[in-house]
Design a protein that fits this description.
This protein has helices spanning 13-27, 68-82, 96-108, 123-128, 135-144, 153-163, 187-194, 217-228, 244-253, 269-272, 290-297, 310-313, 328-340, 342-359, 362-380, and strands at 2-6, 31-36, 50-54, 87-91, 116-120, 147-150, 170-171, 203-208, 233-238, 260-264, 278-281, 302-305, 320-323. By secondary structure, it is of the alpha/beta class. It has two domains: 2-174 and 362-380, Rossmann fold (3-Layer(aba) Sandwich), CATH 3.40.50; 187-359, Glycogen Phosphorylase B (Rossmann fold, 3-Layer(aba) Sandwich). Helix 1 links the parallel strand 1 and strand 2. The longest helix is centred in the last third of the chain and has 19 residues, at 362-380.
Length: 381
């Protein structure tokens, strides 16, 4: 198939999943065309069968806000026609599904069929889409999509309830390449790599996100501060965003900044994650929790909040530990108990890797997308 993919190219779950999906599709013989305002950050440009089309946005003085959604619709229609795309797959409802709907209508007027699939990722439904000014257009574009998928049962139910959607929604979970995200086979090599981040005998706690308020990065620092009183440890923060400075300030106030590494955005997180002992994900809301899955594939259990789609990924007490939002004391206590009980930690690490391999590997999830595309194409023609 020839598939057009549109996503936000930034450091966030929806962009990561869309990019990884494109890479996996191309690796299995499909032709993939990314259409976005800049190249997705995990796209290296070295993959066969992957093409990137930038969306130019005019900046006339008349426009207070450049109309990206209209420029995107034009580019989608153009690329679909020039490269004979079979379908579009847009990630994040706003504004991508609206742009895809326009592109479909533009081509239909010229006698060409271009079905599109919308994948819902979370904040497009839980935050942005529920804004009264966006709700009608979000609902309409979801209803008008040829196919709709969501990354968790939680998100499916929320979309059906909050938006009154009557068309079916297919749940296809996020995934991870279990050959790329994998633990070190040689413990000596892992220990050597850990020396860049921690001294021998120190545990490594990690957090990976886009540092938006919903991720509660300051909670990560607070949990770590409590852990540090009981066990020798380092905190590694991967990513960047609006709450980074608040986390840095807090680290200085608590006088633990010398124990924390702010690494910023990193492209090769698959090389960092296996170095960790625990992942911290104290989010206000997660529709899935991709960072936790990537950690689990690397044999790293996660201490997370019991919200949204997280319980569909992490089995509490087996592959990780779940707590209420803001329960910093118990999160820290749970982490301390795990780190002091090497045997239990090892069992949980094995369970985390097993969960990723048995339920969320790309080899298991990719065929679900391909089968769904085939259904959509069959229904559209």
């Amino acid at each position: 198939m020839r598939i057009g993919i549109t996503c936000y190219p930034t450091y966030g779950g929806s962009g990561v999943v869309a990019t990884e999906l494109g890479i996996e599709l191309a690796a299995s013989g499909h032709e993939v065309h990314f259409i976005s305002y800049s190249q997705p950050f995990r796209l290296t440009g070295r993959d066969n069968g992957i093409f990137y089309h930038e969306v130019p946005v005019s900046n006339y003085p008349l426009f207070e806000f450049p109309p990206y959604d209209l420029a995107l619709a034009s580019r989608m229609a153009e690329v679909a026609e020039f490269y004979e795309l079979d379908l579009l797959h847009v990630h994040y409802a706003i504004p991508h599904s609206v742009s895809a709907l326009l592109a479909r209508q533009m081509l239909a007027a010229r006698g060409r069929c271009l079905p599109f699939v919308t994948t819902l990722h979370g904040t497009d439904i839980t935050l942005v889409g529920l804004d009264r000014s966006y709700l009608p257009i979000t609902r309409y574009s979801i209803q008008e999509s040829n196919g709709v998928t969501s990354i968790s049962n939680y998100l499916k139910e929320k979309t059906l309830t909050d938006f009154g959607i009557t068309s079916p929604i297919e749940v296809i979970p996020n995934f991870v390449n279990c050959d790329v995200y994998t633990p070190y086979k040689d413990e000596a090599i892992r220990n050597e790599a850990r020396r860049r981040l921690a001294n021998p005998g120190e545990f490594i706690l990690m957090h990976l996100s886009n540092f938006r308020p919903v991720k509660r990065v300051t909670d990560v620092v607070k949990v770590f501060a409590r852990v540090l009183k009981e066990v020798p440890a380092r905190l590694v923060l991967v990513g960047d965003g609006p709450d980074r400075s608040a986390a840095e300030w807090l680290a200085h106030e608590l006088e633990i900044n010398d124990k924390i590494h702010f690494l910023g955005k990193q492209e090769r997180v698959n090389e960092l994650l296996p170095l960790a002992d625990l992942m911290l994900m104290p989010s206000q809301l997660e529709s899935f929790g991709l960072a936790a899955l990537e950690a689990m594939a690397c044999r790293v259990p996660t201490i997370a909040t019991n919200v949204g789609g997280v319980p569909e990924l992490i089995d509490d007490g087996v592959s990780g530990l779940l707590y209420p939002v803001g329960d910093i004391d118990n999160m820290a206590e749970g982490a301390i108990r795990l780190l002091k009980d090497r045997e239990r930690l090892d069992v949980m690490r094995d369970a985390a890797r097993k969960t990723a391999r048995s339920r969320f590997c790309s080899t298991l999830v990719l065929p679900l997308y391909v089968k769904y595309y085939e259904q959509i194409l069959a229904a559209a023609h």
